[in-house]
Amino acid sequence: MNETPVVTKGDGATAAATSTPVSERADLRPENIRDAVIRLAGNSQDGIQTAGAFLARLAGRSDHDVMTYMTIPATISGGPSIFQVRIGSGEVLSAGDEADFLVAFYQHSYQDHLDFLREGGVLLYDSDNVEPNLDDKRFVYVGVPITGLTVEALGGTAKDKGKNIFVLGLIAKIFNLDDDKLKKLISEKFAGKDQSIVNTALMAFQAGYAYPVGNVLTKHYRFEHFPKTSGRAQITMDGNQALAYGLIAAGVRYGAGYPITPWSSIMETLRRELPKYGGIFVQAEDELGAVSLALGFSYSGYLAVTGSAGPGISLKAEAIGWASMAEIPLIVCNIQRGGPSTGLPTNVEQSDLHQAIFGSHGDSPRVVLAAASVEDCFYIAIEAARIARKYSTPVFILSDTSLATRIEAFDEPDLSKLMVDPKPDLTPREGGFKPYDLERITQHIPPGTRILDGKYPLIGGLEHDEMGHPTGSPKLHMAMTAKRRNKLRKLAEEIPVPEVFGDQEGDTLLVGWGSTYGPIHDAVKMGREHGEKIGAIHLRHVHPLPNGLEKIFANFERVVTVEMNDQGLYGFGQLATILRARYCEPKIQSVTKTDGLTFRVKEILQGVFPGKFVSVRGYSPNRPVSGNGEQDVDVARAESIEQGVG
Amino acid sequence: MSMLPAPSLSNKELVNDDVDLMSETTPTTSPVAAGNRQSGSDSPAIAEPPREKLTKKAITADLPTWCPGCGDFAVLAAFYKVIEKRQLEHEKIVTLAGIGCSSRFPYFVNGHGAHYIHGRAVPLASGISLARPDLHVFLFGGDGDGFSIGGNHLDHGARKNINMTYFIMDNFVYGLTKKQTSPTSPIGFKQDRPHGRNRSAGESDEKIDRRRGDLHRAHSRRKVNHMISDRARVRSSGLQRHRMLERMRDFPRRVRSGQSEEGRQLRSIQEKKWDNTPEDELRHDVTDELAAHKLASLPFPGVFGVFYETDRPSKNALEKKWIETTREKTGGASDLELLKKTFDRMK
Ligand SMILES: Cc1ncc(C[n+]2csc(CCOP(=O)(O)OP(=O)(O)O)c2C)c(N)n1
Ligand code: SF4
Ligand SMILES: [Mg+2]
Predict the structure, then answer these.
(1) Looking at the whole model, is its pTM more than 0.90?
(2) Quick one: three-class SS letters along A218-281?
């Protein structure tokens, strides 16, 4: 397994931060590698997402671990965008701090992304469009007239469409990828369209593959092969797909939503898929309508889903409070993006945690789960549905832009064990049924259920007695408030305590939630390599918290949450604020940032250990841990902002 | 709903799929339950006692909390009669409402039901109606709930034509919050407190077009019988909108006289009988959108009866059709097989 996030070459040399003189690079040779980060930088209309996705799927099919990262321009018509693929022979957790291989389609791609190329890395550029500074001796330059050769290969009418597939061919050659498998993937992808499109794509691929790249680069790379031990096939998809299919496995057959980035693709997948399973997904007139439709589905006996990003979740808040009060199960997905307001629609942020936990008026307890990876998006949906049904409660699933859009390969889930039957239970009930029995956890009884004493339940948002009748009784309001809260305390008892990764005791415990799982784990590995006593836990159940965290905290000098949100007025990230309230531990601190980009491994380490881990180029290490007295405003890196736009 | 299949089918064919409240109830299972799953349950079966006739007593719940003389009572009384007359299965009746005096309605009906939030009950009812074609979905609310805060949902619920029966109890005022102006308050309407803007009567009067649901208008004092009669079409194909004009107990004098409620004869809409008589020429064709618009814009209090009725396919029918066509393509594969197949394509 690759122990560091930087590329370890077969000869054991760590490539990062070593400037190899060009003269030594002249004799490049075949090389086994475990892991490579390839960044494609161009414009979105060039189809670099498509090329990147081919690489990701090929890696999945070849039993490699893979993770992708992309930026999407906010406009429809295109604009600069990147797709980054990290392929590894071991466990790949983060998309990589630096690129080993940068493909620049344009001058702006070259300029914007050169800082992300590690020293000694390869710049593959379209020599028809890019003029690199060849005097900069830190990199290996491979110029290929990509545009011209693509037009040549495909004939005049196709223009330069197909550059992406041409580059795919080049990469396949350089990394010794299985070209037969890639051609098969290409054929599959374009199958169903005009056969001539498949042929054109294959021609472009072949042209790239056949390019005598040996003239400019005499080394090709070969990924070491470690057969997977699980014995299960790998499937490759993005986080939103994993979430949608997880919901289907969980027996969710109905839902409603309204389009918003980055939630929309879940809606579109469910709208297409659910009718196959006999279900319905409605695109509603707005988010208030969507959550209400979903509550109607749930009330009728079919646990339903609604979702959005921050702006839409804000609109749903009143209805989610109703679900808490009326005790109706519901799944609410928040695919977070940068906020507040319209914010940064295509960037990542984890700033809706407090909204998820508290976002309604009154005391309105609900459950909040957060997916840690693309694979976890699938399983968290199943867990959310289980909890929603068992505790008759709204359950939030928090994901974010980075999970939504990135592609990962993971073991095919064991569906025969996981599939849940969605059918509501309409068995007639004996008399004396109380919808809000104070002695037990509410179980919603759907309409159509005959109640044999003829007394039917009316559920609602007014405070009620056990039969659902409105009441203003202070005693009953206290009892019912406690009932709604205590069922979540009951849930906390059954949540597993997270495993500690890395050191089980020592100086620093990192605590994460959501998509920061990969970089946090890589940070622990790297920190330990550098002699730090550091461990990490990752919370999938964020609210309620599992019991027993205090025992883990007791084993560390300090506890530092790592969050993509602001340190707020009082100096702590949103999770840290909750943990401090819960455990009253001054040693709980946080590393936060709001640059709209995923954490890089070294960013975490530099935040946790100020003054150390300063070797990454282009990154200002002066980011202290917040909450230790230094109320430094997080200044987003100018360079990151540029990259975010790109 | 861009993905909805174009309604190439004849409306008739689709509408026939709907359950008709007028006829005896045909128990229908949900699309999901009707899919590849066996019906039945893990819970121990309870022997079902035979059904007794559904009486007013059986469907009466809490004593209404409305002010004595409130127009809502008349609607409740009429609703009890509808239920008695139709003899629906008790557990299949669902009453729903938003927030307002009138929206307290479900508490006074003994049946499955939910009291939701202000203005959003149309989509709530839509979810129930779409997932459970075996249920009879009745929705109640006020003019504030339906025309103001919930106006958007009313438009779209009607456009989508989702099976439900919606009674809007229009008292021209926000009753529960103590008489602020509502979208239907007439010009010159003065609230007790605080003073607010006046709106022209009829500004948001029945706007009828093909995209909206059927519309029936009744007066709580005199014309509620429409609701009970067969011609009122209390059935469950598409969205049935019934606007009940009514008065608040202590409605300000000026407004009350403006309504000319006492003394003056309220006029009913004469519907076409299609009997080829000269009189029939003058009668109202309920499928004529323009004529319905004209009737709806008559000065207050206007006319009462059925304005407009269409046989557009309901969303329930369209979704059902789509599910059937889709499932046909999948060859009736089980859920497990379907998802496995999808994952195979992602390998
Ligand atoms: C979101 C929200 N805004 C405001 C209110 C306060 N409110 C309750 S009922 C109501 C108006 C009710 O008027 P209408 O729907 O005409 O019902 P009526 O009482 O006249 O029958 C208002 C504004 C609320 N409950 N929720
Ligand atoms: S306030 Fe008006 S609407 Fe409300 S119950 Fe009294 S009379 Fe009826
Ligand atoms: Mg009113």
Answers:
(1) no
(2) CCCEEECCCCCCCCCCEEEEEHHHHHHHHHHHCCCCEEEECCCCCCHHHHHHHHHHHHHHCCEE
